[in-house]
Amino acid sequence: MYDVIVVGAGPAGSAAAKRCAEYGLSTLILEKRRLPRDKVCSGMVMGPVAHTLIKQEFGDIPENILSDPYYLSGYIFYTPGVGSQKLDNFTPIAWRRNLDYWMNQKAQAKGVEIWQASRVTGINQKGQGFSVEIEKDKERQELEARFVIGADGATSVVRRFLFPALKVRYAQIYQEWYQGELDLDKKYFHWFYPLEYSPASFTVHHKGDFIVIDVSGRPGQLKQFMGWTKGFLAQNHHFDVSQKPVWRGGCLEPAMYREVTSHTFLPAKGNALLVGDAAGFLLPVSGEGIGTGIRSGLLAADSVITAVESGGQPDKIYLTGIEGIISVFKEISPWFKKIAEETKGGGHSLPEVLRDAYHSTLRMF
């Protein structure tokens, strides 16, 4: 039996597992994919909390993990046909597969076991702990743990087993990489909010020799939106629409702000705790998840450690601990309404509203 099984090898999972192992708990990470794995993500380490926690828990990010450019000067927000606004903010930008794998290795150095290509197929209560069923190398196994930490992302298997009746709304992100460059400043991340697709948006940034294009919005609309996006970039920024992407991928993001801030969803049950995207902890407006993932992962680990020491209930300890994150969500969430109202009103001040909304997010987290 393990003391702790962490499901998911992203930043939240590595932070939680590393903290548990440092305390002396036998800790296993289960990751469904082979490592290192690609992930649809900008790789930006956006806010001061993310900067501080990565440095504190893992050290300075090595340059070979950062992309080219290593650091962005900030972000530019565009409303086509209206204008743009710039927000300066020093932002390290990494290749996510390498950033996550570096954190995996830091966790392993503290004694964490990592089983890759290990897919969780079932979680069952067993006394005060759990039986975790997995499929690894086409073989089924059953593991036992006193505590389970679900760090397995937007479509969390752990969340589904703990809260089978929970209905989760999702936004969808689709990303394509192209060889080359556009006439957009490489030192900035570029956010575009076309009024005709609102509240959907697309982003463009450079990473080494690649142009990275993301479109995000409601499931089902992204194929058309990506076509519109590439046409816009061709017309305005010399994008070659005839070229084929060198990589493409997609993911879902949970839209659980209302459930989290109203406490109608509590991301913990007994000795099982949810962190990061699995708990719905993507920052409103920016969608940043690295800082909130690491922060909630550490809070979950500390809750387990406190429960071991005191005999207390880890879910109650954790739910108290995450109130700081939830209070930030409550303060930022009204920006959604402001952005929607400005869009409906014609978007004349939308770039300024977006700049202020993102600045608020960065200031609070």
Written description of the protein model:
Strands 1, 2, 5, 6, 7, 8, 14 and 15 form an 8-stranded mixed sheet that branches. This protein has a 7-stranded mixed sheet with strand order 4-3-10-11-12-9-13. Helices cover about 35% and strands about 30% of the residues. It has helices at about 10-25, 50-55, 95-110, 155-160, 220-235, 255-260, 290-310, 315-320, 325-330, 335-345, 350-365, and strands spanning about 1-5, 25-30, 65-80, 85-95, 115, 120-125, 130-135, 140-150, 170-180, 190, 200-205, 210-215, 245-255, 270, 270-275. The mean pLDDT is about 95. The two termini are about 35 Å apart. With about 375 residues, it is α/β, with parallel strands linked by helices.
Shape category: globular
Structural class call reads alpha/beta
Q: What percentage of amino acids are in beta strands?
A: 25-35%
Helical segment count: 11
Number of strands: 15
Fraction in helix: 25-40%
Using only C-alpha atoms, the radius of gyration works out to: 21 Å
Distance between the termini: 37 Å
Most strands sheet: 8 strands, mixed
Task: Encode the helix/strand succession as letters.
Answer: EHEHEEHEEEEHEEEEHEHEEHHHHH
Q: Averaging pLDDT over every residue, what do you get?
A: 95
Low-pLDDT segments: none
Question: Secondary-structure blueprint of this entry?
Answer:
Elements: E1 2-7, H1 11-23, E2 27-30, H2 48-57, E3 66-79, E4 83-94, H3 96-109, E5 113-115, E6 118-126, E7 129-136, E8 139-150, H4 157-162, E9 169-179, E10 188-192, E11 201-207, E12 210-217, H5 222-237, E13 247-255, H6 257-261, E14 268-269, E15 272-274, H7 290-310, H8 314-321, H9 323-332, H10 334-344, H11 350-364
Parallel strand pairs: 1-2, 1-8, 2-5, 3-10, 8-15
Antiparallel strand pairs: 3-4, 6-7, 7-8, 9-12, 9-13, 10-11, 11-12, 14-15
